[in-house]
Recover the amino acids of this structure.
């Protein structure tokens, strides 16, 4: 059952801002009103309102009592020094005159030191140390609650060890890593639900198909006995059967000769069973009644199967097209690369394979094609993934894409390092917050009151 | 958004409820009254106030609103300015309108989206440290990137390269490419703004107070003196800098040393510092290893550590003390105590 506080999570009426990438949330951020919500209220009411607004965003999933324990009125502030100035002066010039440096008449100090340091925006800085919020800030989850779920479900490691506490407070130098599939799920488009029966049906069929093929393999003499009728109209028919048989034997040689993965073996066996089916069909047809049309459809079937086998061979090692080096060596080099060549192929690869023989490209077209193929290899169609493939970013994502400086993120491996605690510096605060300084001040005062 | 009944549906339900009593006896066959039939009893229906937000006054016969007013505003926004954010194209960040283009939250001018290191910038750092063999501090000063960030980039790239070597593909590569287009990036090339300040010092709370310190007018009251005035243990900024060697470098240049020579001296100095640090770490590790005895059994490894019983202190209650001690409670099994680890090695 859903929790009561989640029922109007992105409600438009109250317009609370949350730590999510939701479009309703984006609308609420865009229309956030501060002056109006504080106008005509007592100081206490203003503090209450500010606290309520900010807590709806900052760690809304953390119980208030827990947050009160985390709150600290001490801020981390930093000041940047200038080594060139420090080399030229020993600091005594700052103490000259009456003790605060000599100043010309009418001169005003305009250094960064005299800018406002937004300390009050640092009220929620202790929360940024939490693992779940750091995962959200590193853009690995689409909401803080989702990040929390990833942690609880064991998809996040800290320094290489699984960490199941979303409230773990990161220490400077901690490296956290999220399961890339989860990240892609969180940031990608949703997959449409497939009808449930199909997937269940498909697997046993495939597994069943293995056994009869094995039997077929053990008796290679059987199809050889078939070409016994020497009649002329039968010649084309026989040729087709022979061709099918040749294909089947070729597939068999691939299985036997090469050290290929289980997935490929399975696909090849499926292919061989298809060929066997086709052969059985071909034998059933009375060759005397073959019309030219039917014959053409049969030859099309042979062509299709030839293409499929070619596609399979093409997909085996990636470099096979470019380098005609001995295949065995390549496989020894990159055994994991074979797993990459999946049975389901994307639209570009399929198109290439379908027109492999009768395609002629100039150099530019070749380049474009190579790029498309590369793209497809990087972002393949893979129905086994829990998100929509090829992966596409979810809508309304860009306005939320920012990474605060206290994190160093490597998106390729979905890992990040918590460098240091968030700090305030003149004019800047590192705590991402949609609220202005006034609200931060009021919220800070709310929590200060009880300490 | 939670599913909610549209207001029109509510209206129909009200109508049904109103019509139920008179119609139930006479019109059993056709249970669903048409809108025309319902219009007759509209007046009666509206005379009872209901909780719908889109309630019209009793004399109005116009259709109630399909959506609430906030919903209408939301959908208008989606059609107009919200449409710009639906899909991201180009390779620049695009945030909600604000004071600045790099401000993700329109009302918070104190938080801006600062650039992140691009893939080529990370590779540049890797090459400088792992190929050219420059010390971390020198690389930090060269690219104006914090030393801690340099170390983090190297750690992360090491994991990435290890995975590359195994040949397994990066599942998240399309995500990485897309997100990089949405973020402001720094390439660490000439002519770019410095990536981040590298000479920042933490503001100690002792130094935020005003102190009346009488000194003679002729005295050179330097930064070191000021630090001492704040507290005996407060360090002057010349020592607190992450790369204090930079001050020496600037001093040498100001004295008239050839900048190239001064830079070389700087690199030598930080390299020497790094070597000494590494040696110290190694000796520490060796010491720790000597303190432990490893014994590999069939299924597990036993580790014995030498313990000094005197660590419990005179009263036997020191925090670092080991073992069960009389009168000192063991809290690690108490209910309600937080058992989240505080660090992961």
């Amino acid at each position: 059952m859903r929790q009561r506080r989640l029922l109007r999570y992105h409600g438009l009426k109250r317009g609370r801002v949350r730590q999510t990438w939701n479009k309703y949330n984006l609308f609420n951020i865009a229309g956030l009103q501060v002056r109006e919500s504080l106008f005509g209220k007592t100081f206490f009411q203003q503090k209450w309102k500010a606290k309520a607004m900010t807590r709806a965003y900052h760690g809304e999933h953390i119980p208030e009592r827990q947050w009160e324990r985390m709150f600290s009125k001490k801020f981390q502030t930093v000041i940047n020094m200038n080594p060139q100035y420090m080399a030229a002066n020993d600091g005594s010039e700052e103490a000259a005159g009456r003790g605060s440096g000599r100043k010309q008449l009418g001169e005003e100090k305009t250094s960064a030191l005299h800018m406002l340091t937004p300390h009050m925006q640092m009220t929620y800085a202790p929360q940024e140390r939490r693992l779940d919020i750091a995962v959200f800030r590193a853009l690995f989850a689409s909401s803080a609650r989702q990040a929390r779920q990833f942690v609880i479900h064991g998809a996040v490691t800290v320094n290489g060890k699984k960490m199941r506490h979303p409230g773990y407070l990161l220490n400077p130098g901690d490296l956290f890593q999220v399961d890339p599939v989860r990240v892609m799920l969180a940031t990608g488009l949703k997959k449409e639900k497939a009808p449930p029966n199909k997937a269940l049906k498909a697997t046993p069929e495939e597994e069943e198909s293995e056994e009869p093929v094995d039997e077929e393999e053990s008796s290679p003499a059987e199809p050889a006995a078939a070409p016994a009728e020497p009649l002329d109209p039968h010649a084309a028919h026989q040729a087709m059967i022979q061709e099918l048989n040749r294909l089947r034997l070729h597939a068999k040689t691939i299985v036997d000769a090469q050290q290929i993965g289980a997935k490929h073996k399975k696909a090849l066996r499926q292919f061989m069973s298809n060929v066997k089916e086709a052969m059985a069909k071909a034998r059933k047809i009375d060759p005397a009644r073959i019309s030219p049309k039917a014959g053409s459809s049969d030859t099309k079937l042979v062509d299709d199967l030839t293409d499929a086998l070619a596609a399979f061979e093409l997909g085996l090692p990636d470099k096979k097209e470019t380098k005609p080096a001995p295949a065995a060596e390549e496989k020894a080099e990159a055994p994991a690369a074979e797993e990459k060549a999946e049975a389901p192929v994307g639209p570009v690869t399929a198109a290439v394979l379908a027109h492999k023989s009768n395609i002629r490209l100039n150099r530019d077209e070749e380049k474009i094609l190579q790029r498309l193929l590369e793209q497809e290899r990087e972002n393949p169609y893979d129905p086994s993934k829990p998100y929509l493939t090829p992966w596409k970013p979810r809508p309304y994502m860009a306005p939320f894409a920012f990474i605060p400086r206290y994190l160093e993120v490597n998106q390729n491996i979905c890992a990040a390092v918590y460098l240091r605690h968030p700090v305030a510096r003149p004019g800047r605060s590192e705590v991402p917050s949609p609220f202005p300084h006034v609200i931060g001040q009021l919220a800070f005062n709310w929590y200060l009151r009880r300490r | 958004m939670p599913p909610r009944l549209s207001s029109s549906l509510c209206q129909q339900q009200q109508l049904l409820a109103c019509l139920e009593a008179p119609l139930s006896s006479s019109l059993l066959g056709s249970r669903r009254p048409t809108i025309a039939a319902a219009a007759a009893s509209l007046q009666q229906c509206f005379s009872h106030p209901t909780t719908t937000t889109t309630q019209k006054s009793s004399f109005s016969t116009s259709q109630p609103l399909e959506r609430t007013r906030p919903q209408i505003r939301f959908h208008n926004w989606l059609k107009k300015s919200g449409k710009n954010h639906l899909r991201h194209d180009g390779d620049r960040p695009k945030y909600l309108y604000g004071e600045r283009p790099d401000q993700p939250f329109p009302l918070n001018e104190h938080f801006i989206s600062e650039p992140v290191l691009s893939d080529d910038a990370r590779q540049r750092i890797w090459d400088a440290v792992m190929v050219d063999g420059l010390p971390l501090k020198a690389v930090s000063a060269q690219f104006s990137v914090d030393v801690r960030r340099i170390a983090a980039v190297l750690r992360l790239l090491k994991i990435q390269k290890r995975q590359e070597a195994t040949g397994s593909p990066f599942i998240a590569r399309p995500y990485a490419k897309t997100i990089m287009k949405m973020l402001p990036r720094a390439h660490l090339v000439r002519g770019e703004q410095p990536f981040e300040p590298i000479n920042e010092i933490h503001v100690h709370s002792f130094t935020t107070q005003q102190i009346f310190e009488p000194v003679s007018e002729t005295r050179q009251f330097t930064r070191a003196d000021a630090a001492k005035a704040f507290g005996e243990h407060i360090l002057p900024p010349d020592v607190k800098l992450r790369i204090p060697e930079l001050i020496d470098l600037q001093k040498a240049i100001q004295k008239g040393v050839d900048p190239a020579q001064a830079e070389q001296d700087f690199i030598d100095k930080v390299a020497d510092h790094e070597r000494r640090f590494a040696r110290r770490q190694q000796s520490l590790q060796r010491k720790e290893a000597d303190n432990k005895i490893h014994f590999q059994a069939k299924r597990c490894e036993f580790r014995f550590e030498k313990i000094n019983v005197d660590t419990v202190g005179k009263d036997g209650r020191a925090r670092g003390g080991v073992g069960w001690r009389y009168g000192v409670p063991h809290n690690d099994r108490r209910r309600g105590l937080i058992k989240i680890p505080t660090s992961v090695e």
User: Anything to note?
Assistant: The beta strands of chain A are 78-80, 156-158, 161-162, 174-178, 407-410, 415-418, 424-425, 428-429. Chain A has two domains: 4-80+111-190+401-448, 196-322.
